[in-house]
Amino acid sequence: MRRSIITRRTLIAAVMLALVAGCEDQRFDHEPPPGLGSLVVDNLTGTSLEVFIDRAAPEQVRAWRHRIWDMTPGIHRLVIRDGDDGRFYSGDADIVEGRLTIAEVRIPPDRSSLEIIWRMD
Predict the structure, then answer these.
(1) Cys-Cys crosslink for 82: which of 34, 58, 87, 113, Cβ 3.0 to 4.6 Å?
(2) Under 8 Å CB-to-CB from 93, ≥6 apart: which residues?
(3) Are 87 and 67 in contact (CB under 8 A)?
(4) Within a 10 A sphere around the Cβ of 90, how many other Cβ atoms?
């Protein structure tokens, strides 16, 4: 009985320590250069994407990969197009100095468009 209580307390302590330590995403081991912020496009679609930033020529992000751009802080126009089925997203990305702005790109269950989940790290 006593051993069970100690094991249970150890497990609770380990879970609490993990929660207190934070949930910082270690997949993106990147620090923006001084005076800049970074945009991360995390492709979770299973197909390649074309990414247009501020109307520049598109760059590819392969399936299940991510790509990072260092950018000046401010609002940037972003267009993402699915290379296979013509789905696309268009909108603005807010880039903050010293931070990662992360766009997780997914295809929703109805498969009609691209879905972006925005995070900041």
Answers:
(1) 87
(2) 39, 53, 75, 76, 77, 78, 101, 103
(3) no
(4) 11
Q: Which residues, other chains included, contact 114 with Cβ-Cβ below 8 Å and sequence gap of 6+?
A: 45, 80, 82, 87, 88, 89, 105, 106, 107
DSSP annotation string for 3-54: HHHHHHHHHHHHHHHHHHH----TT----PPTT-EEEEEEE-SSS-EEEEET
To the question of domain 30-120 being in CATH 2.60.40.2890, the answer is: yes
Write out the chain's pLDDT in tens, 121 residues. 555 555 556 556 554 444 444 445 567 889 999 999 999 999 999 999 999 999 998 999 999 999 999 999 999 999 999 987 789 999 999 999 999 999 999 999 988 899 999 999 9
Tokens of 70: 């260092």
**Tokens representing 41?**
């496009």
The total number of residues written for the chain in this structure = 121
